[in-house]
Amino acid sequence: MKTAILTDSTAYITKEIREKYKIHMIPLSVNFGMETYQEEVEITAEQFFAKVREKQELPTTSQPPVGMFVELFEKLAEEYDAVISIHLSSGVSGTYNGAATAANMVDNIKVYPFDSEVSCMVQGFYALEASEMALAGKTPEEILTRLEEMKQSMRAYFMVDDLTNLQRGGRLSGAQALIGSLLQVKPILHFEDKVIVPFEKIRTRKKALNRMYELFNEDAEKNIPIRAVAIHANQPDEVEKMKQELEMKYPNVECLISYFGPVTGTHLGEGAIGLGWYRK
């Protein structure tokens, strides 16, 4: 059985890596008024943040239409017997449900929707591992078993400069955002039960970053092989420094660099920093 691996654009896996690992991608979109752009296809992260600054308005986001999934699944059926469709958390987007709906509308390929329960390159880790296994000839069942195993050690924390975007987009309650703004809090956020919730409230950016390091150290100090990712919203120098520090301190850690693209950047805002990892 030949298995395709599909993920959505919010995994922010570069085109080069997608091509290398034969990972297929379906894009989400950002909407500035009547203008709609498919992220990773029609607009880059850099272009997005520049556009937000220029327009002084927060765009909206939209998931892929079910018809786009159906069309893609039918195209994949020409070459594959099955597809594992890996998506951002169903608690913050309807993308996973769209894939599940489309799965019941195609007959010539078996579709396995997978809810990563996270987003960004932490979601991308599932796609990368699934792809490596698919290319090695593993069955969909074997791949899904490994993905569920990865969930047990997967961690992701992120810090935002401003809670306003999360509140406007409905990802954080107005009360939580108001209190955070009044206290000038830089909260560390994470996914819990598929939704974004505050993990800890911290007063300064530096302390928030140090706290994320502490959380990472709890796992890294066990000397187990770890694959990590430092994620940024237009802060490339900061995450490059994070990567170097983590790999220098821990020989058991492989750290990638990724970014918050247009869709996640809409909700987190410029300046956000994230750190995610799992046991290899």
TrEMBL record:
Annotated PROSITE patterns: DEGV
InterPro entries, sorted: DegV (IPR003797), DegV_C (IPR043168), DegV_domain_contain (IPR050270)
SUPFAM superfamilies listed in its UniProt record: DAK1/DegV-like (SSF82549)
Protein name per the record: DegV family protein
Pfam families, sorted: DegV
UniProt keyword list: Lipid-binding
Signal peptide: none
Keyword Secreted: no
